[in-house]
Amino acid sequence: METNRLRPLLNQAISYSSQLHRLRFISSSAIVGQRAWGFFSDDPEGGSAVYRHVLKFQRPSTIKYRSQLHNSVSFIGTINRPLTRINIGNGRFGVHTILNVKTYRDYNQSFRVLLKMWDEMAEMSVQHLKPNDLIYVSGHLGSYAMADETEDFRMNYKV
């Protein structure tokens, strides 16, 4: 009689174990390992792959059309030469000098920019600036060509 009762219980236990065995293959450790905490990353590039993808392909900000666009720049550099006065016929007062700017990537490299200042800014600069002063400059970037010793024209920049 005991045997008759145990047999259905054993059959039921065997069917449950086979169902659990099938479920184990469905929820393998590879699938279970992909949880929401995989979204966060200590990646040095910052953020997840999805976040980097969105940043890469997002629409850039819109710039309103202006008939005359200027390249606006900001530099931190040292004054290379004493300020030189610019005298023009219409009564405006100006000064110019050379600004030596060290590059961000390689601090041993630098480039030079002609710095022109007019009117009130020129007057203030004459009073306060001297060679080797470290200053912050922002303005419109321009360029001009100038012949060097070999009569080759070289492109220079000015702010």
Automatic annotation (TrEMBL):
Record keywords: Aminoacyl-tRNA synthetase included?
no
Name the InterPro entries for this protein.
NA-bd_OB-fold, Primosome_PriB/ssb, ssDNA-bd
Which keywords, in A-to-Z order, does the entry hold?
DNA-binding
- Gene3D superfamilies on file: Nucleic acid-binding proteins (2.40.50.140)
GO MF, one term, reads: DNA binding
Q: Which domain of life is it from?
A: Eukaryota
**In its UniProt entry, what is this protein called?**
Uncharacterized protein
* Organism from which the protein derives: Ilex paraguariensis (yerba mate)
Taxonomy of origin reads:
Eukaryota, Viridiplantae, Streptophyta, Embryophyta, Tracheophyta
